[in-house]
Amino acid sequence: MRVFLIGEGAACAHGHQRVPQGYYNIEIMLKGVAAHGGEIGVCASCMDARGISDAELVEGTRRSSMDELTSWAQEADKVLVF
Q1: Hey, what's the torsion of the CAs at 49, 15, 62, 26, to 10 degrees?
Q2: Do 58 and 15 contact (CB within 8 A), yes or no?
């Protein structure tokens, strides 16, 4: 499985999230995807626009590019966008 975070989704990869009890913690979800062998790319331009450095990313996510997103989409059997 591959996940690409783009636009406001890039902020989901920011580590050390503190959410109120009972709310979804995207950091935990991303770590779960990575723990099961999923690849998680984060749009580099979107990170830069939001002031997110590589060091601030959730473990298991990494800076990526539109070129990689294009490659992933071309290789995929299915692409889900939301």
Answers
A1: -100
A2: yes
How do residues 50-77 score in pLDDT, each as one tens digit? 999 999 999 999 999 999 999 999 999 9
DSSP sequence for 17-61: ----TTS--HHHHHHHHHHTT-EEEEEHHHHHHTT--GGGBPTTE
What is the C-alpha separation between 57 and 52, in angstroms, rounded?
Answer: 8
Whole-number Å distance between alpha carbons of 8 and 46: 8
pTM: 0.90
